[in-house]
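Chapter summary example: a protein plus dinuclear copper ion.
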Amino acid sequence: MLEKRILFAATVFILAVAGVIALTVRLFGIGLPNCLTDVRPFREAKVIEHAPKRYEIHYVARMWQFEPADVSVVPGSTVDLYVSTADVTHGMQIVGTNVNLMAVPGAVNFARVKFDRAGDYLVVCNEYCGVAHHNMAGRIHVTEAATAPPKPPPPTVPLMRGQKVLDDNGCTACHSLDGSASPGGTFKGLYGSTRQLADGKTVTADDAYIRESIEKPEAKLVKGLDPIMPALPVASDEITSVIEYLKTLK
Ligand code: CUA
């Protein structure tokens, strides 16, 4: 008789626990750990709009940026997030949501999130991943304007373009624009300045020097800086627009 009662109590207890889990999932949107997928690791960032308010975003985490860096969706959107890393382990936390994923080499993690409230959601890396870890961030804009047609570009296109190339390639994660200390040195006042190199020589930061430093970062290493800058797939005319932009950062 006693055994039967214990069995009954145990069954009730198990059902109660299952009920509490079901309730938390339904009421608070707390996800059960199921984030690892069998999706193959990818290197290409994507934003796919499957239907109105239904998005899929493929995030690539790399030192030290998220791609895509900026995404806009309308309020009420359900977003499927897949995250892959291009180099080391990163974290991907979306402030103000329950999303907290790891970007682990060799695996792709997944989370589904619904953005009910409008606002700017910060995407941050919460795994230490190198010198500019603290600069590694992206944004998800939840705004009614997300589906509005893009505004025509402002007239100062050449300058804006150089700035965009810097943003798109994550340059500003390591190079500040305002003179503040940064791992790769600031861009402010760089153009035309004299650079002290690691081998004791000096060089003037002119067009040729800047072009070479982007194409072959290790060619002329600046004294005191670590050789951590990656060679980036930046087209020649993009470099020209970067140089034009740097000239304005006096
Ligand atoms: Cu990526 Cu810290």
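Key point: The first helix runs from residue 2 to 28.
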